[in-house]
Amino acid sequence: MFYVLENFEVKHVIISFQNEESENIKKLLQIVNQKSQNLILVNQGDNFEIEQDLVLQILWPNKEKMIQENPLNNNSIVCKLNYRNFSILFTGDIEKLAEEKMLQAYRGQENILCSTILKVAHHGSKTSSIPEVIEEIRPQFALIGVGKDNKFGHPNQEVIRRLESEKIKIYRTDINGEILLRINGNINVKTYSQ
Prior knowledge:
This protein has helices at 2-7, 23-35, 71-74, 96-106, 131-137, 157-165, 173-176, and strands at 12-16, 38-42, 47-51, 54-60, 78-83, 86-90, 117-119, 141-144, 169-172, 178-184, 186-192. It is an alpha/beta fold.
């Protein structure tokens, strides 16, 4: 993230409210300030129309109901990118507790969480991707951003089995390399192995 901010033209940086300071947040704010980039603090319910037919919905966190347990992960941004009949749910590093709170917040609001593609939470960690949230999202594809042979053992095999049992096509950066999605009426996935 820091490399991108320092070496590419970035107009807007979107972050969520946090109730815990970290060195990474301090460094991020320093770079944003030095580069005069536009910092946008988002909250649950915010929407951004990027262009016609392309909308970003902020689904989590709620600054009035910040989670105290592992706050940097559980209050990370969850957003849904909607493009015509396609959507992708980016789940950040949220864990079971945040997933449960999100399910409570959107219970009865049909299809808010339902998405064509799921960016699996927290690199496929065993602390995330509870069955109820997978059932609510109902993705066709799951993307897992994870380093090869990482020390955390991500992704967790139970999470993989859970996704497979729902017949969700899984793409992982540790196996498939870079993943390119092309959306033009259909979803075309191309991978670039490492």
